[in-house]
Specification:
By secondary structure, the protein is an alpha+beta fold. The protein contains 3 helices and 6 strands. Strands 1, 2, 3, 4, 5 and 6 form a 6-stranded mixed β-sheet that branches. A hairpin with a 2-residue loop joins strand 3 and strand 4. The longest helix is centred in the middle third of the chain and has 15 residues.
C-alpha cells in the first residue's frame, strides 16, 4: 500500500476543491491507482520514481523538494478527457498552497487504453506531467 504524504494530500485537496473538477469527476481522485471498476471520469496521480530532488544552499539543506508527478485523467470520450485535463491544468498550473510551493505542468500526452473485458469502447486518457516543489 502506498504511503500518503502531505504533498499527496494537498494535491488531492487542491483538485477536489476545484468546482469544475468536482462537477466532472466528483471525489474520484486517487493516489497511485484507481480501484477496479471505478466510474469514469476520474483522476489518478502518482509520483515518478527517482524524480525526488532536494534543494541545498551553502548553509545546508533547505527542506524544499521537487518531485515529478503524473496526473492521469481518464474518461469515456476524447472530448470529456480533454475537458477534464484542461480543468486539471488550470487548477494546478503555477499553484502555491501551504504545502505546494510551486506546480508547473511540463507536458501532456493523449492516449487510449483498450476496452476492458466485455466492454466495447476504449478508455481515453491524458497524462499531465507536473513538477511540484514542496516543503517537507
Amino acid at each position: 500500500m502506498a504511503t500518503t504524504t502531505h504533498v499527496d494530500e494537498s494535491l488531492r485537496a487542491l483538485l477536489t476543491a476545484n468546482a469544475g473538477i468536482a462537477l466532472s469527476c466528483g471525489s474520484r481522485i486517487f493516489s497511485t491507482m484507481a480501484p477496479q471498476a471505478s466510474a469514469l471520469p476520474c483522476i489518478v496521480f502518482v509520483r515518478q520514481n527517482g524524480s525526488r530532488e532536494q534543494f541545498a544552499t551553502l548553509t545546508g539543506m533547505t527542506g524544499f523538494v521537487r518531485a515529478t508527478f503524473v496526473l492521469s485523467c481518464l474518461a469515456e470520450s476524447l472530448a470529456e478527457v480533454r475537458n477534464l485535463s484542461r480543468l486539471v491544468r488550470e487548477a494546478i498550473q503555477y499553484t502555491v498552497t501551504d504545502a505546494i510551493r510551486l506546480a508547473i505542468v511540463t507536458t501532456d500526452e493523449d492516449s487510449q487504453e483498450p476496452p476492458a473485458n466485455g466492454e466495447q469502447l476504449p478508455i481515453y486518457r491524458t497524462d499531465l506531467t507536473v513538477d511540484i516543489t514542496y516543503k517537507e
